[in-house]
Request: fold
Amino acid sequence: MDTVTGEVVLRRLGTGHGEIRHWLAELAGPVAVTYEAGPTGFGLARDLRAHGFRCPVAAPSKITRAPGDRVKTDARDAMLLARLLKLGEIVEVVVPSVAAEAARDLVRAREDCRGDLMRERHRVSKLLLRQGIVYSGGQPWTGVHDAWLRRQFFDQPARQVAFESAYEAVALTSGRRDRLDAAIEAMAADSEFTPVVDRLGCLRGVSVLTAFGLAVEIGDWHRFTGSSIGAFVGLTPSESSSGQSRSLGSITKTGNSHARRLLVEAAWHHRRRYVVGATMTRRWDRADAAARARGHEGNQRLNARWARFDARSKKPSVANVAIARELAGWCWSLAVMT
Reply:
């Protein structure tokens, strides 16, 4: 789209970076180009920026569309992006470095593996439940439980094969998860994310895996504030207000779902009585004095908030989301420390 004459030129291009660069070089400069973030990744944006082109990557959820627009094609999408870019209305996503994107792939591979393991375990337990076999020897998926599973035997050969297949899937997925955990812990100990991981570990419930996941998913913490980071991870309440009335609903669940899950799980740890144990002491030893003091202050406050929620008989799941939202702010305050 020529911003002076308004002339629009449509052309279908291949996926090769060289072909796209060659076409852009033929246009009268200066040239700005944009595309939506998605499965195509950030390689094109890095390549175009390296060759002097301005290339913001648009956040798909922030692209404004007319409510009555029911026709969606590639050409119409391109026209919309061109108009928004001309008006300066493109909301950019942060393009991570190659190393940061690789670390994010590792974290998300572990997240996928966690979901796979949960499903494989459910298949085993439900297969046994259909036969009236229920484990009652303590916590499931421990060494004792695993030994109990290996002792199960069925008279029907077909059912025995099905059980062995389901059990094998659990064992293989557990091994895959352990290898990913080891890779994450090694990278967390020696990478560009190590200082942030060490500081985040000063908070209860934020282990190495959680801290590394948050560090990788959030990326540049300085683009947020303590109050705005909750909205980025979708932990702020939705709102439908008009006039003098204000109506708040459930949380928005927008933004980064992986970071939101990590924060919600970590928030449950602050419900128990706060005691500085050996695990917390080891984490504190990896951080400086200022981070330790900040983490201790955050742990005390979040535990006190949980106590107030419990005293008011607040529904635990609702209270935990509120704690997770504040925990996000404490994580931000530790991450931006210098």
Summary: DSSP finds 13 helices and four strands in the chain. The mean pLDDT is 94. The first helix runs from residue 17 to 26. The CA atoms of residues 16 and 22 lie 10 Å apart.
